[in-house]
Amino acid sequence: MSGFPWGAFGVNLAVSAAVALAVMLVTFAVALAKGVHRVVDVAWGLGFTAVAAVTLALSAGHGDDVRRLTVTGLTAVWGLRLAGHIALRGRGHGEDPRYARMLARAPGDPRLYALRTVYLLQGALVWLVSLPVQAAQYLPGPMTGPQWALTALAVAVWLTGFLFETAGDAQLERFKADPEARDRTGARIMDRGLWRYTRHPNYFGDFMVWWGLYLLACGDVAVAAAVLVSPVAMSLLLTRGSGVRLLERQLAGRPGYAAYAARTNAFFPGPPRGGGN
Predict the structure, then answer these.
(1) Whole domain around residue 188: which residue ranges?
(2) What is the pLDDT averaged over residues 139-148?
(3) Per-residue pLDDT tens for 197-232?
């Protein structure tokens, strides 16, 4: 494919950066008014949705309409679902312990520290990770047969991830709501449904969602190479950053978790080890 409008895409990158920043600044103001910074987790999904929607408007007349609507719709469904889930999960709760610990050791004004290390950082990550969502909307059309096949593959990968994430979250919420729920050893550890095959089905789902969205930008080799950093960055965040590694550290001392970890894959789904049921 040729004819990618790099100039228009560059303008879009500047506007999307401003949009991501605006979402996080508004969220920061809300957090100060409410007295809790956990609201920034809700803004994560909303930020991606806002960037996708603005790009849809700016890319009119440049990209293929089917691809533009597909990538925007998939991003918005994922982002709004995640934002709603996190908002409902945190309703009625105080500050997230992660942010409480961070602010307790903040040098200087904790509000400015939170702005720099949480809100501005997350805004930058929203912009970086969303590069394929933006680039895909500028790929010229109409799509050919191979591009239709690539789009179908991308949607299938996205759908696999979305189902893992939504089902995993729903299964965990049902487990938490049942005070009598236990794993097969009697420990208060979730090892049912998708959690039998991976200790983090929601993070694995995110991984698949963003590689699926990346595939939508792969109709042009140069574009695909330029935005490859995005799914790689998200993968590292999920596995090495604030995802699996941080949560595993928090859960390590919970009774029964070591046994669960010994028989269950950390990230990619697989059958339980040791003949676990």
Answers:
(1) 143-272
(2) 92
(3) 999 999 999 999 999 999 999 999 999 999 999 999
Same domain? 33 vs 105: yes
Asked whether residue 277 is domain-assigned, the answer is no
**Is there a contact between 267 and 198 (Cβ–Cβ < 8 Å)?**
yes
- What is the spatial distance between Cα 78 and Cα 71, in angstroms, rounded to a whole number? 11
Considering the domain architecture, whether residues 78 and 179 belong to the same structural domain is answered as no
State the Cα–Cα distance between residues 168 and 172, nearest whole angstrom: 6
Residue 167 and residue 80 share a domain: no
118 and 217 co-located in one domain = no
Segment 51-109, tens digit of pLDDT: 999 999 999 999 999 999 999 999 999 999 999 999 999 888 888 888 888 888 888 89
pLDDT band at 2 (very low <50, low <70, confident <90, very high): low
